[in-house]
Design a protein that fits this description.
Length: 212
């Protein structure tokens, strides 16, 4: 069983390298403070794992058409594509703003969209939701892997092993995003370049997934 869990852990690592997953994390965490970035990463990973577990249990008892399971990927792809279009619009409409200030001898950078600086409270919840949607589409690959390894009931330890593998990659990528947020997004020129790059990647990844 321990070897099986280790294989599932590595499967989680490989699964997390999907461009759709990393793009979704970048979309939600770019321009955020370090604490917020890792909250987003964790929410995405947990949402993904919970949905995989729920649908794995359902599919043990019932047969669900493959077309239905693909809806999660379609919705998530549409979200990624839409965010990309939104980011590109914000860049080219000059609606992304940056302000810096020093607090307790530490330099703080604030990035916001539109006219007023507002602290977003729903980003983590949104990342959790997209993780859930992607979990619906990804459950088929997970079940194949689990079936080959165990040929038995899916239990929570398998999902924990999977989430742990996913989080290794997600948190590593979160460190990269956090570095970009801290050391690259220090002036409005860099902010617009990075957001334009993230937006373009989102459009390409989301569009490719919808056409696949």
């Amino acid at each position: 069983m321990e070897i099986g869990l280790m294989i599932i852990f590595w499967y989680g690592i490989l699964h997390a390298f999907g461009p759709d997953h990393l793009t979704a994390i970048a979309d939600f965490s770019i321009g955020k403070e370090a604490k917020k970035t890792f909250m987003i990463v964790g929410a995405f990973a947990v949402g993904h794992g919970i949905m995989l577990f729920m649908f794995a249990k359902i599919l043990e008892q019932y047969t669900i058409p493959a077309e239905f399971l693909s809806y999660g990927d379609i919705i998530a792809s549409t979200v990624i594509l839409s965010i990309g279009v939104y980011l590109l619009y914000m860049v080219y409409a000059n609606k992304i703003h940056l302000k810096t200030h020093t607090h307790e001898h530490k330099r703080h950078v604030h990035i916001w969209f539109g006219n007023e600086h507002q602290h977003e409270s729903s980003t983590t919840t949104s990342a959790f939701g997209v993780g859930v949607l992607m979990g619906i589409g990804g459950v088929r690959g997970m079940l194949v892997t689990l079936g080959v390894l165990h040929g038995q009931t899916v239990d929570i330890t398998m999902i924990i092993a999977f989430i742990a593998g996913v989080m290794v990659v997600f948190f590593s990528f979160g460190l990269v995003i956090s570095w970009i947020n801290k050391d690259i997004l220090t002036n409005i020129k860099n902010v617009r370049r990075v957001f334009a790059a993230v937006g373009t990647i989102s459009v390409l990844v989301g569009g490719n997934m919808l056409l696949a």
